[in-house]
Amino acid sequence: MSTAVLPAAPLVDTHVHLNYPDFAEDLPQVAERWRQAGIRQLVHSCVTPAEFPQLQAIADQYPEVFLSVGLHPLEARQWQPALAEKIAQLAAGDRRVVAIGETGLDFYKSDPSDIERQKESFRAHIAIAREQDLALIVHCREAAAATYEILQEAMATGESLRVVMHCWSGSPEETRLFVELGCFISFSGIVTFKNAETVRRSALEVPLSQLLVETDCPFLAPTPFRGKRNEPAHVQRVAQTLAELLQIPLEDLAQQTSQNAARLFRLPQQGDGGGDPPALRAAGNQPNREACANR
């Protein structure tokens, strides 16, 4: 695939980590590139509540950035019931928060002794998302069966729950299970990798009405940038690959995934405020970098 700049199609990058040191020196230039690439809105994920002030500072500077708050499953050793109250308070205190997470289960890198803590944390995040009517960002690696069981249990109550399976890399069979639950499925640069045929087959299982795109930057740069720092402008490559796979125009995929992101996160649309965030309800530490990458 060429490294030439793709024609800008309006998109939403539904999962970024711009507070990482990778962006410390040139975030204004990175922002200029995402704007030139047509990235109208971004959802900034959260790995630990301690980093939330960093996320707020970025959203103060770039009004198209919306926020989440939560504890990543690979940080589960920090989990205690009092942290649920902290996450709920942070979410309620800033109207730019559109999601809880990222939460979920990761059995690939975690210590087996942390698994029960991960599950307890996951269930608490689900409860907060419901209480505050926010989306839920789910990280799932080598844990599809257990993740499905907890989400199915939560949805069986009939109460509303809006869920995205972020940076999805599961099998087609696993994908169908989460699609049937009504989850949105978000694909990252992995879908562009030469050896990711299973992920591409999984993408074919997702209805357009449940499809999302993301970078998970600074991780998982798509082909032809693999191995380099990822950034939001590169979500165009993810969208282009999916459009080709689904045999639809890039513009159609961009429009549908942007509408999906707006439904999931209840983002303002162009014409009702665009990327400008609502007013605040009320006006850390670096996370584990490895926690965020489904690598």
Compute the CA-based radius of gyration. Answer: 17 Å
The low-confidence parts are 272-295
Following the backbone from N to C, one meets helices and strands in this order, namely EHEHEHEHEHEHEHEHH
| The number of domains | 1
Query: Total number of β-strand segments?
Result: 8
Strand adjacency order, main sheet: 1-2-3-4-5-6-7-8
Alpha-carbon distance between the termini?
22 Å
Quickly name the level 1 CATH class. Answer: Alpha Beta
Q: Count of helices?
A: 9
What does this structure look like?
This protein is of the alpha/beta class and 295 residues long. Helix 3 (81-92) packs parallel to helix 4 (115-132), helix 6 packs parallel to helix 7 (197-203) and helix 8 crosses helix 9 (250-265). Helix content is 36%, strand content 15%. The chain has a single domain (11-287), classed as TIM Barrel (Alpha-Beta Barrel). The protein has an 8-stranded parallel sheet with strand order 1-2-3-4-5-6-7-8.
For this entry, give a set of tags.
295 residues; TIM Barrel; alpha/beta; 8 strands; 8-stranded parallel beta sheet; 9 helices
Which helices and strands appear, and what pairs or packs with what?
Elements: E1 11-16, H1 27-36, E2 39-44, H2 52-61, E3 65-69, H3 81-92, E4 97-106, H4 115-132, E5 135-141, H5 144-155, E6 163-165, H6 172-181, E7 184-187, H7 197-203, E8 211-213, H8 235-246, H9 250-265
Parallel strand pairs: 1-2, 2-3, 3-4, 4-5, 5-6, 6-7, 7-8
